[in-house]
């Protein structure tokens, strides 16, 4: 099981609304007590909230499925069903939320306390008491609860750490982060000991920052060789880069300058990292040969504009100076970035004259109706009850669907689809609906939508 996760797919399901209740009040000596069915409860929402105490997405890697509570069904005696409980998913500050299927960025969550409803619970169905009117005094039906939203989202941490330690495998990055902080990464003398970043908290005077031991890069990483793209994605989220250079390597064809240039070439080929401040750390200075090599390499790196530090993770030589130098770079990088404002949720009102639905002609015999209201009404209708179907027909006519179908060229018997072409409700349209006309006949015999 990994101990570091900065990107995860969450499968989210909001709660379904509870069904309304169709009930008639029964009491001794009151045979016509009237409808008293209560409304169904609303389904719970799924909410993402920025939490200052959350620094990883590991919990969602382990448990990627999250579901809010369903609303409860209504009851007789005008008792409404209980609403389903919301669930709040805490995420780190700066989490980017994307649609896992399309890659569309839904929101960038910034600022502790910022909330975003990622999936809305379904509306509860009305009971027959709420559906009663002067024209329909005793409805023999109730509305169904609406299903809650369901979506797969990709959560991606925008910032992993302040400082990224980059370098070849076995350059001593894990040993260095262990010496600088309380982190205890896995350390061994073979390539790719580190497969995921190790994070350590470092204090330099009043500056506290996070250092990431990024897994070792190799030539070709920018082209995806090894796990290059994954590794470089971690580097991209740090504001300061520190080259950790092994001055005691015995591998043929390698030396500190060629190692630095190889890693720098991969960073430049990947792009997006040109503006990051850099410094170089010549590691393993406790080895005699490495100490001599350090004196030769230092001026060559300084000519390239780098601040250079000679350290030993084993003996802790030079670590204090390195720590404060990194703290200065982090403080400068933070000061250069404007203070992030909490994410503002924009509410856009409907345009004046917006009917809330649209009608389009698919072909001469087929028409499609789309819109939040008609699609929700379809989901809430019990099509086994003809009276409920008649009520739906009245609602669609009052909304203006019949008029728009006529304008679009629909004629009697045309096939009308409400919703998507794949999953929408299909019926044969009969342009005889009239909301003012009250259906006469036995309850349950209203059959105006075929």
Automatic annotation (TrEMBL):
Class in the EC hierarchy, top level: hydrolase
Cofactor needs: Mg(2+)
Region Disordered, annotated ranges: 63-86
Enzyme Commission code(s) on record: 3.6.5.-
InterPro entries for this protein: G_OBG (IPR031167), GTP-bd (IPR006073), GTP-bd_Obg/CgtA (IPR014100), GTP-bd_prot_GTP1/OBG_C_sf (IPR036346), GTP1-OBG_CS (IPR006074), GTP1_OBG_dom (IPR006169), GTP1_OBG_dom_sf (IPR036726), OBG_GTPase (IPR045086)
Subcellular localization, as worded in the UniProt entry: Cytoplasm
Ranges for domain Obg: 2-160
Subunit-level organization: Monomer.
This protein's UniProt keywords: Cytoplasm, GTP-binding, Hydrolase, Magnesium, Metal-binding, Nucleotide-binding
Protein name as it appears in the record: GTPase Obg
Family: Belongs to the TRAFAC class OBG-HflX-like GTPase superfamily. OBG GTPase family.
Organism: Streptosporangium lutulentum
